[in-house]
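Please decode residue identities from the backbone states below.
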């Protein structure tokens, strides 16, 4: 991922993805954009998260979709303080996304670059503490087991400074398992295909050979070498020459570059860089302990507090700009929401008085990003439960009590069964006030719960045909409809611009459907599972 993205050079971004309010972009790569976002809950609860959203041109790329799903399935199983936690995953009209812990800090590669910009060398003692800690997270990933207790055989395949996040709390965390490979049948990666950053490829990885955890240990050895030497081990500008050096030459010792390097530290790192993987450290934990022991004996190992102070000082200006931008975004949206609320209060409330079919009216205001919480999707916690998964969404289950809705501006009329001879919905609905129009929603079974463009519409009693009032500007963009049938099945439809009649078809099996223009079914699309610990945001 490319770090240091600013609002000025970043492309426009969605205001919301799934149930998350997007604040601003913080990183970009060839496959996805990472945003700072937040989730909102009851009583003013909010949590900042990092949201990784696929680029638009990759939305229909099956291979990349499977890579992202694989990343979610693997990462959610690794529970370690030195691994970035994956909290959620899903599909949105904007694309597939992962939701991760937001680490207020920067990548190790960006910290190296920032130190160079200040004309200083990144302290080796700080870098070695970062590496020693993140190696324990890598070890946890290597030791991952399935629900039956069998080793998964996970290989990260992209252990590099770009994927080591260092927070202002001084803690280092390993991220981005997007190209990780498991020996069990979890993955979409292929032996013989070279993936990873060129300067950190192991000899066997550069040759396209089968990999195990020792390939990651080589990459960690390269990071350690560069941390102590203060320079790159391989010149990646000439790719062919770099690969030739990796597969045919033994890396130079650190003492040949810096004679002041302690011999024990040089030997520990040289062992990780053995071209014969049989000669390398057996585990990432063993390498962590060897480096820590050698560095500490010579006063070259900082503590977490020292790392925190250095990182805070190095990127203080960058973080303050980010925080200021967040305050600006939130203030602007609060102002917009207040203006919309005033407009809604000034609007004349609509009371539907028709006998058939059911007519429901929405509050005449387009929802704010924080309120625009449509269908959302999350990844389940256990890989065994994700063997054959269905992408699902959850909506409000039960319809509202008509008595509780009677005094509001959204009023449900009687169902079609009360007056079977009534005319069609679009002709029987009362005229819409200026600036608003009616859409007709028909289904093959009665609808008991309805959400239109993020707003819940009271439906009582359930009906096959509904007329819903929406703002004209919403209709001009095309509205999205999520519905729950009276028997609990779910379906979704996204209308085209200006489309007044939408049709919903519920599948025989329960499950959420992928959005398609004009019509919807309940068939699944991608193997995500609902999170059993979450509830629908209203």
């Amino acid at each position: 991922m490319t770090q240091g993205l600013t609002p000025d050079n970043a492309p426009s971004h969605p205001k919301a993805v799934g149930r998350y309010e997007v604040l601003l972009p913080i990183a970009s790569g060839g496959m996805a954009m990472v945003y700072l976002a937040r989730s909102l809950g009851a009583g003013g609860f909010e949590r900042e998260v990092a949201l990784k959203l696929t680029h638009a041109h990759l939305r229909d790329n099956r291979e990349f979709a499977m890579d992202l799903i694989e990343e979610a399935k693997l990462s959610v199983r690794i529970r370690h303080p030195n691994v970035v936690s994956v909290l959620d995953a899903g599909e949105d009209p904007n694309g597939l996304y992962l939701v991760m812990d937001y680490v207020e800090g920067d990548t190790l590669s960006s910290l190296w670059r920032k130190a160079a910009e200040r004309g200083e060398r990144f302290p080796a003692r700080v870098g070695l503490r970062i590496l020693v800690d993140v190696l324990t997270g890598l070890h946890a990933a290597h030791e991952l087991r399935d629900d039956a207790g069998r080793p998964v055989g996970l290989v990260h395949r992209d252990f590099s400074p770009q994927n080591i996040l260092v927070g202002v709390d001084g803690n280092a965390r390993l991220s981005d398992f997007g190209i990780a490979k498991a020996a069990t049948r979890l993955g979409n990666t292929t032996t013989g295909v070279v993936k990873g950053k060129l300067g950190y490829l192991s000899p066997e990885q550069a040759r396209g050979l089968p990999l195990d955890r020792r390939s990651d240990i080589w990459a960690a050895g390269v990071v350690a070498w560069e941390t102590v030497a203060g320079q790159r081990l391989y010149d990646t500008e000439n790719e062919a020459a770099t690969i030739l050096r990796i597969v045919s030459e033994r890396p130079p010792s650190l003492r040949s570059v810096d004679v002041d390097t302690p011999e024990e530290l040089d030997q520990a790192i040289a062992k990780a860089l053995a071209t014969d993987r049989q000669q390398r450290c057996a585990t990432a934990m063993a390498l962590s302990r060897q480096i820590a022991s050698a560095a500490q004996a010579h006063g070259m190992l900082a503590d977490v507090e020292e790392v925190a102070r250095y990182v805070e000082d190095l990127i203080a200006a960058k973080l303050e700009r980010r925080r200021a931008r967040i305050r600006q975004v939130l203030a602007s949206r609060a102002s917009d929401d207040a203006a919309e609320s005033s407009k809604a209060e000034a609007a004349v409330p609509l009371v539907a008085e028709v006998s058939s079919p059911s007519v429901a009216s929405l509050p005449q205001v387009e929802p704010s990003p924080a309120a625009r919480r449509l269908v959302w999707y999350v990844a389940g916690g256990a890989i065994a439960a994700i063997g054959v998964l269905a992408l699902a969404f959850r909506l409000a289950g039960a319809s509202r009590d008509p008595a509780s809705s009677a005094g509001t501006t959204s009023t449900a009329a009687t169902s079609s069964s009360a007056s079977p001879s009534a005319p069609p919905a679009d002709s029987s609905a009362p005229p819409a006030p200026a600036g608003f129009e009616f859409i007709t929603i028909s289904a093959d079974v009665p609808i008991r719960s309805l959400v239109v463009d993020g707003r819940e519409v009271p439906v009582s009693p359930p009906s096959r045909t509904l007329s819903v009032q929406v703002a004209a500007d919403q209709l001009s963009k095309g509205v999205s409809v999520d519905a729950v049938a009276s028997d609990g099945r779910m379906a979704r439809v996204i209308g085209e611009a200006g489309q007044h009649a939408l049709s919903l078809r519920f599948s025989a099996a329960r499950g959420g459907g992928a959005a398609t223009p004009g019509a919807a079914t309940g068939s699944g699309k991608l193997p995500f599972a609902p999170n059993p610990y979450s509830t629908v945001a209203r």
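Observation: The chain has twelve helices and 18 strands.
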